[in-house]
Amino acid sequence: MGSRQGWASGGVAIGFLSVVLLVQPVHTSRDIHAEYIKYASGADSITAYIAYPERRESGPGLLVIHEIFGLSDFVRDAAERLAREGFVVLAPDLLSRFGGTPASPDSARRLIASLKREVITQDLDAGFAYLKGLKAVQDTHIGVIGFCWGGGEAFPYAVHNRGLAAFVVCYGPTPKASEIDYMKVPGFGVYADKDIRVNQGLSDFSGALTQYHVEFKFKIYPGVGHGFLRTREDPKIADQAWGDVIRFLRGRLGGGPKTGK
Question: Which of 60, 76, 69 is nearest to 94 (CA)?
Fold first, then answer.
């Protein structure tokens, strides 16, 4: 993973024009529609996977920050799962500037390590602006969720973007205690009790949350390790965690009726 730079705070500029290129739909069913799109980020074009619930009313939006493997099958599946719960979900490929997520996980890791904080923020801001501009999205009900590497990135992005209504961290590295005072967006964290590397920061993190009165709750799920939502090493625990995430997001963002899928 690359070195972490300082976190920026403040509002998000969304005055730029997002140019969208629609591609052939890749998934259509009774309850969701998913496809690849492209949106503008500065002078560059970012590929993203978007999933819509099939409904007449506008609803909440979610920005997904992918894992260290890039825009993987798991991330696309997660986007579709969240869309079935009533969210319009946009998962940008943050490796688009390198030609997109490579087939090799090791190559994806190396490219992720080369990403710069300001470029990540720019591309997420552009994705947020794209979601906010969709008629299908209630523009004051947008959240962000990150997995693994993306979970760690969800923390600084929630500090940076005060326009978010909620954020979710799935087994992402915790921020430094001194940076927690800047967290103003309510959040929820998913952690695994066998994830020693990530969990070693949870004690100091928990104390800082209390010290700075930050609205962030987290759960440590038993008997599972890092990435358990992807690996589903214990399907019952994975489904429990998904249920907790959905309840938190629906409580903060709203959403459609639970499908049970």
Answer: 69
Take residue 75 and report the two structure tokens written for it: 């991330």
Name the amino acid, one letter, at 95. L
pLDDT value at position 56? 86
In sequence order, which residues have a C-beta less than 8 Å from that of residue 219 and are 6 or more positions away?
189, 190, 191, 241, 244
Q: Which residues contact 158 (CB under 8 A, 6 or more apart)?
A: 144, 164, 167, 183, 185, 187
Judged by average pLDDT, the poorest of 5-9, 51-55, 255-259 is 5-9
Q: Which two tokens stand for residue 241?
A: 């965690």
- 157 Cβ neighbours under 8 A, 6+ residues apart: 65, 120, 121, 124, 144, 146, 164, 167
What span, in angstroms and rounded, lies between the C-alpha atoms of 13 and 127? Answer: 12
Asked whether 190 and 171 are in contact (CB, 8 A), the reply is yes
Token pair 């979900």: residue: 89
Q: Are strands 27-28 and 32-41 parallel, antiparallel or unpaired?
A: antiparallel
Backbone angles phi, psi at 82, to 5 degrees: -70, -35
Local structure of 232: helix, strand or coil: coil
Strand, helix or coil at 222?
Answer: coil
Q: For 34-65, how does the pLDDT look when each residue is reduced to its tens digit (9 = 90+)?
A: 999 999 999 999 999 999 999 889 999 999 99
